[in-house]
Amino acid sequence: MTYEEFVEFIGTQDGAAPKAANPAAPPPSAIIGAGVPRIDGPLKTTGSAMYASDYNFPGLVYAVPVRATLSSGTIRHIDTSAAEAMPGVLLVLQHGKIMPLYRNASGGRNSENRPPFEDDSVAYWGQYVAAVVAQTFEQAQAAASAVKVIYDPGTFNVSPLLSDALAPEGQPGGPQVMSHRGDTDSAFASAPVKVDETYITPVETHNPMEMHATVAVWDGQGYTLYETSQGVMNHQNVMSQVLGVPQENVEVISRFIGSGFGGKLFPWPHSAVAAAAARQLNRPVKLTLTRQMMFTNSGHRPRTQQRIRLGASADGKLLSLQQDYRNHTSLGDDIRENCGEATPFLYSTANLKVTSALVRRNVGTPTPMRGPGAVPGLFALESAMDELAIKLRKDPVELRLSLDTLIDEEKNKPFSSRHLKECLQVGAEKFGWSRRTPEVGSMRKGDLILGWGVAAASWGANRGVCQATVSLLSDGRARVSCGTQDIGTGSYTVIAQVITDKTGIPVDKIDVVLGSSSLPPGPMSGGSTATSTFLPAVLDGANAAIKVLLNVAAHTKGSPLQGQDPGSLTMTAGRVHAKGSPAASGVPFPELLKLANLSSARGDGKSGGLGADPKARDFSTHSFGAQFVEVEWDPGIARLRVSRVVSVIDGGRIMNQRMATNQVAGAVVMGIGMGLFEETIYDQRDGHPINDNFADYLVATNADAPQIDVHFLDIPDPLLNEYGARGIGEIGLAGIAPAITSAVYHATGVRVRELPVRVEDLLMAEHRSDRA
Ligand code: MOS
After folding, report:
1. How many CA atoms lie within 13 A of 10 on its CB side?
2. Cross-strand pairs, 646
């Protein structure tokens, strides 16, 4: 699935009528943008927040999957006799011995096309071939390891070299043209300055703190699934089809989520395994993935290989830009890592072509990972831009500024709000870029050599459809409900801030209810679209609830405002009063509700997707950013550290400074992992990811995190919603890795075109920098 397909899916989940943003709306109160601490913080820090695997029920039993130990083949026989004789074992599931599970063909997105145990074939190491259910987790684990599987092995390919022969361009199995304008061949051929290099990003595995888990409860008619899901509505939609029951008979609950990075967008097979076991045994079943399983059974960012050709004039005009990329995918699913997401519009050029090809490998199905496509794509494009700047003897910030455009030259539409130029300028100022000397190894700090690198960032901005219900309650509180979820980024808090802005009810008197598919349908936490999507629906619901309240004030016997025109009334600071008169003169809203004997004033809010918004038709919508990185290189001991990062983000209006800063700083740390550490390595002998654990798969830690300065331009993009907020979940990761490798080049003279940067890559640099 490309990013375009993904966002299209986000925007078309439901046929709700579009409601255009209102750019003429009055400016919000100070609560919008304020660094309000997370309202769910105390629940998390005291351990009372319930994550999927925290749910326990009387009679609960445990399922443990059995994974294939080869990457290709056919199951000849599964011997479960020993396992079944072990203490506590209740059930062994496998192909042919499980209730019917179905494919999902209409609406919703599944992660893998096939349900678990669909046939007897194995396509990747770690694929589930059976599952054991027992009274205790330990019993299930022991019995799972006693299941013997006999295979007829097949041939497999987990090669990291993606140079396979392909069908011709445009043919099935050949490269597909993703974007094309002008004549890149002749423009490149005649360009006086050229860059022609291939960039590689490895398989990266999502490693959220909270691992995947399902607790499935069957009540004789329907399922309740406690999940860790970035999309409870989609999960319900898909699982109703996989399990063969009506949608209303599946409730998916994800109240708290320990992050996801995209790995939890779509259901993985373990959810169906747990649900089937629960139904067959008529008992609640818990299935938790191990960290090892997370490396094979719940997605990864696929490996990419990207050839970039840039042609420029001697004075730095971009005459031609071509990106030909490949990514690996699994045998069963066509997952396109949309590496050209930002390429067609980031810089001005008349001649541009992007092609994309898939290469099949015996690996589990890839899935979106934070900034899918754009993040690896920008590693290639922005690395090439740095190489071009060096060939042109131009400053890399200056080069980018000179190629900036306010028109999306692919769509031939203006951007709704593009401030890449300001990001570069503000970042350069904050970083102190003017002090940079361009020669390799020329900047010193004691014995250390400093390298300074820069890269631009971009990520799509979109809005889907959403419903939300807002109730003003007679006890003085407010309640908002929406079938979205908070993956840790702060959705609970942002929604409370909106209600405070509209009603004046303080944040600590607002109950935000998310994380259940039984709530009014809300968006996935994906594609950096959740905030921009739920804001207009919550606003609509708040306005509707206030309208009910004003009518109550005007029409209720005994109300101090009885007989007034409801249109002349307003609500501020939790009180209803005449427009123009002070809030203190107003009536507290609980008093009005009590007078009318109402438990609440309720408003059902609704908002539409950007794609159906007539105002959006003429614009291209994206977020932008600029990343400035300093590395310290110690040639004496070959030690490389990222020492300083300045990240400037143009993400529309920032709803909460504290959480937004957290989000981008976290993305910077993840970017350091991408630049220096992360890589899933498949054993070429059997296809097993050999570093499928936290000892061998390195993610950046506190010790690797430098001084990070996050700055937001905070310029509203009114096309998205009244507040002008876009999403900021992914933009912070874009551009970090190429800024790191450009800084590494500046320090060492070594251009690393295959991530992550390894000490081995730099050992030669010791001598080079001595010469420098
Ligand atoms: Mo993001 S990859 O859409 O969670």
Report:
1. 32
2. 628, 709
Q: What is the pLDDT of residue 107?
A: 78
Sheet holding 89-94, edge to edge: 89-94, 128-134, 61-67, 285-288, 213-218, 223-227, 250-253
pLDDT (0 to 100) of residue 551: 98
pLDDT in tens, 106-125: 778 999 999 999 999 999 99
Report whether residue 527 contacts ligand 1, using a CB cutoff of 6 Å.
yes
CA 282–ligand 1 middle distance (angstroms): 35
By most ligand atoms within 8 Å of CB, the mutation choice from 264, 730, 731 for ligand 1 is 730
CB-ligand 1 contact for 417 (6 Å cutoff): no
Instruction: Locate the ligand 1 atom nearest the alpha carbon of residue 529 and give its number.
Output: 3
Q: Is the pLDDT of residue 142 over 60?
A: yes
Which of 370, 663, 733 for mutating ligand 1's site (highest number of atoms within 8 Å of CB)?
370
Report CA(528)–ligand 1 centroid distance (Å): 7
pLDDT tens, position by position, 383-406: 999 999 999 999 999 999 999 999
Q: What average pLDDT does range 456-479 have in this prediction?
A: 98
Q: Please tell me whether the overall predicted TM-score, pTM, comes out greater than 0.85 for this model.
A: yes
Distance 263 CA to ligand 1 centre (A): 7
Whole-number pLDDT of residue 542:
98
Given a contact cutoff of 8 angstroms between Cβ atoms, the answer to whether 113 and 333 are in contact is yes
Amino acid sitting at position 236:
Q
Residue with tokens 């599946």: 250
* pLDDT the model gives residue 33: 96
pLDDT at 267 exceeding the cut of 70: yes
Identify the pLDDT of residue 207.
96
Q: Alpha helix (H) ranges present in 70-212?
A: 81-84, 137-145, 184-189
* Ligand 1 atom at shortest distance from the alpha carbon of 524: 3
Residue 6 CA to ligand 1 centre (angstroms): 10
Residues forming a β-bridge with 79: 148
Look up residue 551 and give its DSSP letter.
H
Instruction: Tell me the average pLDDT across 330-345.
Output: 97
Mean per-residue pLDDT for 21-26?
60
> 28 C-alpha to center of ligand 1: Å?
29
Atom of ligand 1 nearest to the CA of 368: 2
- Please give the positions annotated as active site: 730
Per-residue pLDDT tens digits for 567-600: 999 999 999 999 999 999 999 999 999 999 999 9
Question: Residue 635: CB within 6 Å of ligand 1?
Answer: no
Token digits of residue 165: 């022969």
Ligand 1 binding pocket includes 372 (Cβ within 6 Å): yes
As a whole number of angstroms, the distance between CA 588 and CA 472 comes to 11
DSSP one-letter string for 531-582: HHHHHHHHHHHHHHHHHHHHHHHHHSTT-TTTTS-GGGEEEETTEEEETTS-
Take atom 4 of ligand 1 and give the residue whose Cα is closest.
Answer: 262
Strands 318-329 and 352-360: parallel
Across all residues in the chain, what is the average pLDDT? Answer: 95
Neighbouring CB atoms inside 10 A of 444's CB total 9
Strand extents, DSSP E, 685-724: 707-712
Q: Residue 770 — pLDDT band, cuts 50, 70, 90? A: very low
- Pocket flag, ligand 1, residue 263 (CB < 6 Å): no
Determine if ligand 1 sits within 6 Å of the CB of residue 526.
yes
Question: Nearest Cα to 271, choosing from 9, 527, 65, 519?
Answer: 65
C-beta of 460 in contact with ligand 1 (< 6 A): no
Looking from the CA of residue 230, the nearest atom of ligand 1 is 4
Q: Which atom of ligand 1 is nearest to the CA of 369?
A: 2
Q: What angle do CA 648, 407, 187 make, to 5 degrees?
A: 105
Distances (CA, A) of 133 to 141, 345, 452, 590: 9, 52, 55, 52
Quote the pLDDT of residue 8.
55
What percent of the chain is predicted at pLDDT more than 70? 96
Beta bridge partners of 250: 223
